[in-house]
Design brief:
Elements (H helix, E strand, L loop, with lengths): L8 H48 L5 H85 L1
Length: about 150
Amino acid sequence: MRSFAFKLEKLLEIRGYKEKEKALELAEVTGRYIQIVNNIEDLGKKKKQIMESRFSNAGNNVYSIIYDESLISAIDRKISDLEKKLIPINIERENKRAEYVEALKNKRVIEKLKEKKAYEHKRKELSRDSRTLDDIVNSSFKKVQEV
């Protein structure tokens, strides 16, 4: 039985490389996106702590309330800035995801073609082997009949 050789193996390797490259690009952008989301969550928790501590301390004076308000407004500004940064990163993330899906689809097309060709090759080889065995059996049978 002859071994199967896929003529487009190099193309499959190139598409596999591109798919991995796009996956890494998507991972990098997603990492930046997650980092900003985590920063927003951390700032929200910090704001909540300030609000809770402000109302739990009954002996607050005006200066501590003003200080807390300035901290809260600074946190709100940081959150707003981070949310503005999040918009273009989210768009970039969606674009990278689309590029990755396209690269993955291109790779899978070649993989399916390879599987189909390998199946056809195996079927042909089995058919050829079967014919060879039939020929051997028939020739042996003819020799036995001649004797």
